[in-house]
Design a protein that fits this description.
The protein is α+β, with helices and mostly antiparallel strands. The protein has two domains: 62 residues, Winged helix-like DNA-binding domain superfamily/Winged helix DNA-binding domain (Arc Repressor Mutant, subunit A), CATH 1.10.10; 128 residues, Umud Fragment, subunit A (Ribbon), CATH 2.10.109.10. Helices cover 21% and strands 31% of the residues. It has four helices and twelve strands; from the N terminus they run αααβββββαβββββββ. Strands 3, 4, 5, 6, 7, 8, 9, 10, 11 and 12 form a ten-stranded mixed beta sheet that branches. It is elongated.
């Protein structure tokens, strides 16, 4: 597709927002991120819809999605995954979107050639050592599959009611959710409700 640099940036922002939050940003959020007017963003979005790069559900808010037919430049390498922030493995901290990428080819200087990113996989850098019993250490990268549900015993990215996020093992029991660390030095977190952002499917560690 013939896209301008600004239009490609809008597509990347929308894609990353849907990966990390499950919904697209508002026009104002896009405008603030790009340091342009809301009217300018609206014009770009309408142009992207006409080009078939964006899909919008007129009956739903925050429904903009990037078309499967649109391939962004940063998606050309199968081992390049969105690095969407850091996640606490000690006490909860706010999860911050960093607009970075983790390229496994660059990290290990090897091209495995295995598989492709599904668009529903993301990477978080671990802060803290509450999950060392699961061989997840401080500064490791956890590869996560985006999902809103989890089974007991799975290691999850959990968003708490106050907007803070943490990495813990998930257990639903007796009407409560227990977020269990894998380190005896840490206490479990008990909550009535929690929003699951993803389930850990892999851990990457570099010794360089």
């Amino acid at each position: 597709m013939n896209l301008t640099p600004k239009q490609r940036k809008i597509l990347i922002l929308i894609r990353d927002s849907r990966l990390t939050r499950g919904y697209s940003p508002t026009m104002q959020e896009l405008a603030d991120e790009l340091n342009v007017s809301k009217v300018t963003v609206f014009e770009h979005v309408e142009a992207l819809i006409k080009k078939g790069a964006l899909i919008r559900d007129a009956n739903k808010a925050r429904s903009l999605t990037v078309s499967d037919a649109c391939h962004l430049p940063d998606e050309q390498r199968s081992t390049r995954l969105p690095l969407v922030g850091s996640i606490a493995a000690g006490v909860p901290i706010e999860a911050i979107e960093d607009r970075e990428y983790l390229d496994l080819d660059e990290l290990f200087d090897a091209n495995t050639g295995r598989g492709q990113s599904t668009g529903e996989t993301f990477v978080l850098r671990v802060n803290g050592d509450s999950m060392i019993g699961e061989q997840i250490c401080d500064s490791d990268y956890v590869i996560c599959r985006r999902t809103s549900t989890a089974r007991n015993g799975e290691t999850v990215v959990a968003l708490l009611a106050d907007g803070e996020a943490t990495l813990k093992k998930f257990y639903k029991e007796r009407g409560q959710v227990r977020l269990q660390p894998a380190n005896e030095a840490f206490e479990p977190i008990f909550v009535d409700q929690v929003e699951i952002q993803g389930v850990v499917i892999g851990v990457v560690r570099s010794y360089r």
